[in-house]
Structure formats: structure tokens, C-alpha cells
Amino acid sequence: MKFNINFGSISNLGKVKEHNTDAVVEFPIADGHVFAICDGHDGVEFGGALAAKITTEEIKRYFFDRSYSNLSNALTNAVSYANYCVFNQANTNEKYNGIGSTLAILIVQNDEAYYASAGNSRIYIHKDGQIAQITRDHIENGEVSVLVGKEKNIKFSVCKNPIQLDGNETFLLCSDGLTSQLSDNEIFEVLNNSDMSSEMKTARLIELANNAGGADNVSVQVIDFSTMTKKKEPQVSIWRTVAIVSSLLLFIIVFYEIYKHKVNEGAPERQPIEQTAAPTPASEPAKQEQTAANQTVEQTQAANQTSAQAENKIAKTAEPTAKQAKPMDDNKIHIHVVEKGQNLFRIGLRYNVPLAKLEEMNGEAATQLIVGARLKIPVKAIHKIANGETIESIAARYGNPASDIIKANQLSDGEQLEVGDELIIPLSKK
After folding, report:
1. Which of 33, 72, 152, 368 is the one with CA 20 to 30 A from 195?
2. Which positions ≥6 away from 51 have C-beta within 8 Å?
3. C-alpha to C-alpha distance for 225 and 96, rounded to whole angstroms
4. CATH code of the domain covering residue 26
């Protein structure tokens, strides 16, 4: 696992319901972790809690202590198998006919996140001060249309490409007991609070849902990631270090005093020596050599000063000024080709474009994202690099932070700009 994972996981009865038909599960796997939330729906004689319990248990049975080469395929098979188990239970006993369960599942392994969903339990991602729902609700005519175990075959949603993690993400899994009581903005305020731990965020969301009425069971999982830091080696006791250093110093002092005493004991008494101001004949050559050396240093300093002035003059001539710069207004659209592992949320962050704007401009190509799709991205300009320009000077020219231009163009640290190349100038953050 490349990142530290901190999480909170709570399922709460709420204030109205007599029984909790939700279920949550989390467990480690090789180089990763699995999180899942289920909301059971009753059949002819209740049984919703059983549907949620079977779903979470079979998900855990499928992944626990096992390794799969293709997690996306494994996730598809796991949900299909859980569907079979719930459906089989419903048909084994008549009182369980019609039971089913929603499902939101997130699997994190190394630096990738896979997810799937059924029904109206949701998964959100929070990153860089933005929040986005990455699953879609399966609702038709006001009713949940997809439930694990409700039908023999299930048509659920599963990610085609995993989300690539960089350690700054927060994920939220929740049942509709949360989203029916709180708006996305209210949820965002909690997830965006950097002073709260993941456990505290989870408890706070449960509390807010209950304060808003608590009309349903509410289940919440908040998963925070952070970059791993190297463990410090155990340090030697400070008192032990002080004792060792003190002993060494004492030994050195004693040895020095003994040595000084022996030397002074046999040394003859020294007489003061009178010094005269008159120079000796041998001192004249040395004085001449010193004078020549001083002249050489002065000549070198003068040459260096002249060279530095010339370089400064050249640099000032080559450096473009803000007054000379004129932004290019004829290029307002950049075509972005979707690559493996990308999603609309990350693309929007890269170019400082809201998700709603991307969906408005690209329609179905944005809502059903596939590798190779060509998305229209509104940008401030497409800038052609001129001689002597730097990221900083270009950023000042367009009024953008240099970091935004580096992010939009995916430049690496220290990468040199080539004259004639084009840079995307993203929109300013709002």
C-alpha cells in the first residue's frame, strides 16, 4: 500500500425506524482495503436486514485473504455472486420473497481505487476543495430500480477504469439515510474540514442527519488518504548520550592537564624578544610580490564587473515585458483526449473547469466517459512559447498561478520550455 488509510465506519438506527436494515463492512486485502455499505429493502414479510447482511458477508467472503489479477473483473463477479446468494435465499423461504439490498463498494489497492454501486447508496470523492458524486442512482418513477437479490440477474454500475490516487483524496460511502437529510453542500462542509479526523467526520455526518429528522437508518464510511512517511529509527536515550559525552570530555581534560604539566616541567624559562620596526633586506621581495598580487586581484574584479554588466544588459533585452505581451484570444477551446484511468472529476480539476460546464459542453461524451473520447475544454488561451519566456513570465502575462499552468500541461519539475511549443492557459479558479 502506497498511502496511509484512516477511516470511520458507522451504521445508525436513526430517529424514526424501529430496526436497522443497513449493514457496513470494511476489511484489509493484499496491499489495500475494501469498504462497503448496504441498505436492505424488505420483502413480503420484512427481511431487508437479512438481504443487507448476506450482501456484505458474501462481499467479504469473496475478497478476504484472496488476490485477483484483475480487480475490475473480480468486483463484477463479486457483486453478481452476492446477487445470486440473496436471490437464492429469497426463493428458499416464502417470507423473504422480494427482499433486496442497495450496495456501494470501494476497493483500494496500491494507488488505484475501484468502485461499484446498485440502488441509491452513493460514493462521493472530495479533493482539492471540491466534491463530486462518482456513482449514479438507480431510480425509476421514484422507486429504486436496481437491488442486489431482487432479480435473478442484476444490472449494476461498475467502474471501467480505476481512479488513480495521489494521497490527497477523501471518499464518502453512504446510504440514502444521509443524502435524504443533508444536501451535497452540507456534506461538503464536513468533508472539507481539515481539522477533523475521518472518524470525527463520520460521527458528525450521522449527527447532522439525525438532527435534520433522522427519518431513516443512516450508514456512513469516510476514508482519508495521506502519503506515507518513513519511520524514524529508534533514538538512543538522551541521558545515556549525555553520560557518554561527559565521560569523554573529562578524559580529554585530565589527559591534557597531565601532558601540559610534563611539558612545562622540563622547559627552560623564555626571555622576551625585542622587535624592531626596520625591515630586513629579505622583506623587500615579499612586499613587491604582495603589491603585484593586489594589482592582479583588482584587474580581475574589474573584468568580472564589466562581464556582469554586459550579461545583465543582454538579459534585460531578451526578457519579455508585461507591456509587450498580448494574450491570444483566438484559441478558447482545447480538445482533451481521454486516457485510461481518467474521469470527469479529475479532468475538471486539471483545467479549473466545473463538472457542470464540462457536461454542458460535451453532452453524452462527458456523462458516459470512454477512453479515446474527445472532450471540448474551455481555456483562457493556447500560448506559443517565445524566446526567453519562462513559466513565471507566462503566468504573470495571463494572471494565472504558475502551478495552474504546470498542472494543466502536466509539466514535470524542472522541465525546460521549448521555443515554439504551445501551452494551455487554463481558466482561473472560481
Report:
1. 33
2. 21, 38, 40, 41, 43, 86, 89, 90, 96, 99, 100, 101, 147, 148, 149
3. 40
4. 3.60.40.10
Could you tell me which residues come within 8 angstroms of residue 85 by beta carbon, excluding any fewer than 6 positions away? 54, 55, 58, 149
The answer to whether residues 218 and 348 belong to one domain is: no
Question: How many separate domains does the chain show?
Answer: 2
In this model, does residue 211 exceed pLDDT 90? yes
Q: What is the pLDDT of residue 187?
A: 97
The upper half-sphere exposure of residue 236, i.e. CA atoms within 13 Å in the direction of its Cβ, equals 7
191, 169 contact by CB (below 8 A): no
- The DSSP symbol for 43 reads B
- DSSP codes of every residue in 118-158: ETT-EEEEEETTEEEE-S---EETTEE---BTTSSS---EE
Last residue of a domain, which of 175, 199, 227?
227
- The helix (run of H) or strand (run of E) holding residue 12 is strand 3-12
Domain that holds residue 374: 333-425
Does the global pTM surpass 0.70? no
Q: What is the pLDDT of residue 131?
A: 95
Helix/strand number for the chain, H first, E second: 12, 18
Tell me the three cell numbers of residue 247.
565521560
User: Is it the case that residue 267 has pLDDT exceeding 60?
Assistant: no
Domain annotation covers residue 342: yes
3-class SS at 259? helix
Closest CA to 409 of 430, 385, 388, 374: 385
